Inverse folding.
């Protein structure tokens, strides 16, 4: 249905809606490839003409905001009065009616190749591996995909940014499991990430400082092929629990990185593009040199082990066109690569503020521009 309003002329509307309804809206909009604001616009427009409006349970609502064509919310408010319902109830009914009119496409068949694996890597520090991987994982989980974030960097930035402590050096950890030096179940180490619309769908495997020794220990291990397969072996048991496993890699190119690259390979029977490596970069000159080294390591690994590792694309992070020619020309060179630029994340204060507050970005500032770019990147993995 086309909407009889100019898409440019929109106003922000805030309503209190229950989390399950908001999540259903996000999931359905993503499934159908429709913008949430378009879905709500269609819902409100249709609801205004609707004769039959069943009440929707709006208890336990939390703040939801979207942009509607100017004047539409006033019309909704005008229609709520004679119907003797609150504006929140009007919005909830509009969204419910849109959901009922737009059923989910058929469910996808169960996967036989395990969870989809997204490995965020670049040996350069500070380019946004942690912020982009965390944001994409939050965006995937917002649409109802059960997602596991792995903090694979012994510095533990991801763990701490999400408000958790790193695992105690003596306690079981991912690295100890990889080196067959831990008792118990890896699943027991997972912690839930709470706060946003992704709640109940997002978990973290926290980092432990012992991972600083992982490279050296993998180098001296004598077991055949353990170097590359160690990560896959320990995560295999978790793959039935999750649709996506997102790995935030350390800024290095050692054996630890090899295990992560191997984990992101295209498995037998897996469609190309389902799993692979995502490379956060910056629009400046040294990022290109760093990428060449990573690409070389990937080529070597593919050749040695006869596997295929797909680069799913680049995310150009910390982008600020005010940096002039260096930024714009570097961006063009990323865009001219064989692999796509999946998104351009602007340098804006919200990301740093979320880190400072130890909150996930999509919970701290769910409507900011960065959050929306991260959602659009996540949508590219949901085909
Ligand atoms: N788009 C952005 N806008 C503003 N600050 C950002 C952005 N992306 C990352 N940052 C900040 O830059 C720093 C480095 O980012 P981080 O994700 O930790 O990089 P990496 O994991 O590659 O080392 C962090 O303080 C982070 O908050
Ligand atoms: Mg990091």
């Amino acid at each position: 249905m086309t909407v009889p309003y100019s898409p440019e002329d929109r106003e922000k509307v805030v309503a209190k809606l229950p989390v399950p309804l908001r999540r259903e809206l996000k999931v359905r909009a993503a499934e159908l490839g429709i913008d949430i604001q378009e879905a709500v616009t269609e819902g409100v427009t249709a609801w205004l003409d609707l004769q039959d409006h069943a009440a929707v349970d709006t208890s336990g609502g939390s703040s939801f905001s979207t942009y509607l064509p100017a004047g539409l919310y006033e019309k909704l408010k005008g229609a709520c009065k004679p119907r003797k319902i609150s504006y929140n109830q009007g919005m909830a009914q509009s969204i419910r009616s849109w959901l009922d009119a737009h059923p989910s496409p058929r469910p996808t068949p169960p996967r036989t190749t395990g969870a989809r694996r997204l490995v965020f890597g670049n040996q350069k520090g500070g380019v946004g591996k942690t912020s982009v991987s965390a944001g994409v994982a939050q965006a995937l989980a917002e649409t109802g995909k059960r997602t596991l974030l792995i903090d694979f960097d012994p510095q533990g930035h991801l763990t701490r940014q999400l408000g958790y402590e790193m695992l105690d050096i003596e306690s079981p950890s991912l690295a100890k499991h990889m080196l067959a030096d831990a008792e118990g179940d890896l699943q027991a180490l997972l912690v839930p990430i709470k706060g946003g619309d992704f709640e109940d769908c997002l978990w973290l495997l926290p980092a432990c400082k012992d991972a600083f020794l992982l490279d050296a220990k993998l180098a001296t291990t004598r077991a055949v092929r353990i170097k590359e397969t160690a990560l896959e072996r320990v995560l295999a048991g978790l793959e039935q629990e999750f649709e996506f496993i997102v790995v935030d890699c350390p800024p290095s190119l050692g054996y630890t990185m090899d295990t992560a690259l191997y984990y992101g390979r295209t498995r037998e029977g897996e469609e190309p593009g389902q799993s692979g490596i995502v490379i956060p970069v910056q629009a400046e000159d040294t990022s290109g040199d760093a990428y060449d080294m990573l690409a070389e390591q990937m080529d070597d690994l593919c050749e040695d082990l006869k596997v295929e590792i797909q680069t799913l694309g680049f995310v150009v992070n910390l982008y600020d066109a005010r940096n002039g020619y260096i930024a714009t020309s570097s961006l063009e060179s990323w865009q001219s690569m064989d692999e796509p630029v999946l998104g351009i994340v602007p340098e804006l204060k919200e990301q740093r503020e979320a880190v400072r507050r130890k909150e996930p970005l999509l919970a701290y500032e769910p409507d900011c521009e960065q959050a929306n770019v991260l959602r659009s990147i996540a949508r590219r993995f949901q085909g």
Observations:
- The longest strand covers residues 10-18.
- The mean pLDDT is 91.
- The two ends are 23 Å apart (CA to CA).
